[in-house]
């Protein structure tokens, strides 16, 4: 494992142009890895285009070099084998820039975290890539359990903590609905893990209340607790479970960030650190609604979350549907119709359809497993 914090002797060179989404993603990924990036805008330095074409045979951007080794474009970077990528990072840490490294303009500085400080999408992507790395290393295959002890020792976790500080400079008002959904879902799930690692796991109702109302990040100049993110932003400023007031008052500047209305599908993406929660995944703004719908389908297909008792004419659902019943229509009938509409094509859906067509159906709720989703 590459150790974080060591002195960098080499560099990664990225030839890019402004406004290029693939360039932004590549630089965010490299930033998340903690390597020094020399970002060369070929629009400003057109004299390098011909030389670059000679080196790689390509004119499209981005083009990425680890010292003198050409890796390829953004897709090539994202598809690198993790072990190979780690060796590349190690080579940049240990080996000085060779004489045959690709050319850069004189006095050209390195790209750093500061360049993504004010760009919510770029910072979100950098954090997401770090989260993906942590999850791939320390999350069970089904996404239900976390190896917290190993994660706490990971240099990538320390890198995540360092990068999370820059959330304070993010411009949240520039985000679209889709970007807000992906950004805040990913941040919520990461903040839960961050809080568990730094403060310990809440073990009772009172500790859980304090955890979700006090564990927070400073984002865009404002404090956002876990409750603020879930109920204030993602649920369109609705009261949370056992909450007397809405998270944001009428004059609260964070109200401008809140979604205009609740998005019920978030309940199948947010993970509070308990075994009864949906699996942990990461989300991207592109096609976010389809990603969330797929998460809902998977959740409903699991018998820990939804059981159809045809003989007893009863549907047993996760407590999540009870706590947030208003988000799913507010009545048993509307809730069951929502569940049916969001099930994948399966025998379970056909069983529910048969029950609904025959008349009244009882709704009950399954016990919720509040034990910690740790591998220990």
Query: What is the CA-CA span between the terminal residues?
Result: 22 Å
- Alpha-beta content class: alpha/beta
Number of strands: 9
Helix content: 40-55%
Largest sheet properties: 4 strands, mixed
Low-confidence stretches: 1-6, 109-118
Task: Bin the strand percentage.
Answer: 5-15%
Mean model confidence by pLDDT: 84
Strand order of the largest sheet: 2-1-3-4
The outline comes out as: elongated
Helix count from the secondary structure assignment:
14
Radius of gyration: 23 Å
Question: What keywords describe this structure?
Answer:
376 residues, 10% strand, electron transfer activity
Report on this structure.
By secondary structure, the protein is an alpha/beta fold. The chain contains 14 helices and 9 strands. The strands form 3 sheets. It has a 4-stranded mixed β-sheet with strand order 2-1-3-4. Strands 7-8-9 form a 3-stranded mixed β-sheet.
Brief account:
This protein has 376 residues and is of the alpha/beta class.
Helices, strands, pairings?
Layout: E1 12-16, H1 21-33, E2 37-41, H2 47-56, E3 63-66, E4 69-72, H3 74-78, H4 82-94, H5 120-138, H6 148-152, H7 155-164, H8 177-199, H9 205-214, E5 216-219, E6 222-225, H10 226-234, H11 288-301, E7 306-309, E8 314-317, H12 319-323, H13 332-341, H14 347-358, E9 362-365
Parallel strand pairs: 1-2, 8-9
Antiparallel strand pairs: 1-3, 3-4, 5-6, 7-8
Helix pairs in contact: 1-5, 5-7, 5-8, 8-10
